[in-house]
Amino acid sequence: MVEMVEDLFSAVAISIVGFEPETYKKIMGLDINKTIAFVEELIKRNKTKVWLKYLTTPLNLHETNLFLKWAIKAAPERIVIADADTRRYINDTKDMFWSKIIERTSHDVKSELILARADLINKRTTIAFDQLAKELFEIDENFVKSNDLGSVVDITSGAAFFVDKGLNGL
After folding, report:
1. Of 43, 70, 79, 91, which has the maximum CB count within 10 A?
2. How are strands ordered across the β-sheet holding 126-129?
3. Angle between helices 64-74 and 97-115 (to 10 degrees)
4. SS3 for 49?
5. Per-residue pLDDT tens over the stretch 84-119
């Protein structure tokens, strides 16, 4: 499929929903290892621009940092983290079950961004968060500035980047 995609498209956006094998299989009905191999080969061949998008839901939000770690190493041109309005689907419990999961995941996502700063700069990869993902993971201007991530983390355009570049609907 790599050659066919390269022949048909100058740029593609690949949306991934879930990153652990069982989650991805349940949500997408596909093998994550085949998807990873496809994406990595497409990026390696460098004939088609590749953007990766991770859509967080209550089922997969805890895997966001795993996706992010892989995506940064894969080095696409752009990584977008978008949220499917997770908070609207969950009801927190007295023990703050969901808040704790979100808080731990937010910490892991932020840590991954900080650790990968040099790699992102060297590979010229940028990461964007849509409005809901920014709120969910508490990625704000203060976090970006205080960790010197302004050149690699875009908190202004988010998922709108696809529309702006004529990739509407991908």
Report:
1. 79
2. 11-16, 49-56, 78-83, 126-129, 153-154
3. 20
4. strand
5. 999 999 988 899 999 999 999 999 999 999 999 999
